[in-house]
Amino acid sequence: MGLQKCGGCLSCLLIPLALWSIVINILLYFPDGKALYASSNNLTNYVWYFEGICFSGIMMLMLAALLIFLDRDTFQKCCPSESCTRTYRRFISVVLALLGIAFSGYSLIISTLGLVQGPYCRTSAGWEYAFKDTAGRYLTDHASWSECSEPAYVVEWNIILFSILIALSGLQMLICFLKVIAELKRILCGTYSVFVQPALI
């Protein structure tokens, strides 16, 4: 019973993480609190991959809802067979959790690439990726951040938001991994039989 509650808690944790991912990704479209940079396409290209809005956001919300539904006893109304409720839904949960790892992993990779590349900003040479050739070394070179004159504080904006997205997607990956382990343990370690037992006549 404790393991079931633990699995349910893990699924519930995905919801606030997904909601925060959506909010943080949306904020990336408004550097300096202005929408004109998005309308003029003067944003880093990695914000258009919708990693926080779609993959670690909406898709993760859908997965979390399905996982919570599978963890609840109400699933029995749709599948009254004991073998179904106690075995097949565990396999479905494993598959969904693996999809969660894939979605959050995509968000983690894209956010990391966006952080390493740096923002798209106006410099003395015009609009460009001022730090694309630094391999992320600009992150510790605060003096170089002044190369970006517009949007204001765009370097700090991108660093903070992409870092938060990395942390959120990393937590989602960890939770989905723990969910996979928990479900496999329930299946393989004798919590209940994996195979459908034939009815005795």
What features would you describe in this structure?
Pfam families: L6_membrane (PF05805). It comes from Podarcis muralis (Wall lizard). Its main location: membrane. The chain crosses the membrane at residues 7-28, 48-70, 91-110, 159-178. Belongs to the L6 tetraspanin family. β1 (120-123) and β2 (126-129) form a beta hairpin. With 201 residues, the chain is mainly alpha-helical. The radius of gyration is 22 Å and the shape is elongated. The protein has one domain (2-188). α3 (51-71) packs antiparallel against α4 (82-117) and α4 runs antiparallel to α5 (154-188). The protein starts with a helix and ends in a 13-residue tail after the last helix. Helices cover 61% and strands 4% of the residues. Mean pLDDT is 87; it is low at 191-201. The protein is built from five helices and two strands; from the N terminus they run ααααββα. Strands 1-2 form a two-stranded antiparallel ribbon.
| Beta fraction | under 5%
By secondary-structure content and strand pairing, the structural class works out as mainly alpha
- Unreliable residue stretches: 191-201
Overall structural domain count? 1
Strand order of the largest sheet: 1-2
Number of strands: 2
What is the averaged pLDDT score?
A: 87
- Residues in helices, as a percent range: 55-70%
Major beta sheet summary: 2 strands, antiparallel
Shape: elongated
> What is the CA–CA distance across the termini?
32 Å
Radius of gyration, Cα only, in angstroms?
A: 22 Å
Order of helices and strands: HHHHEEH
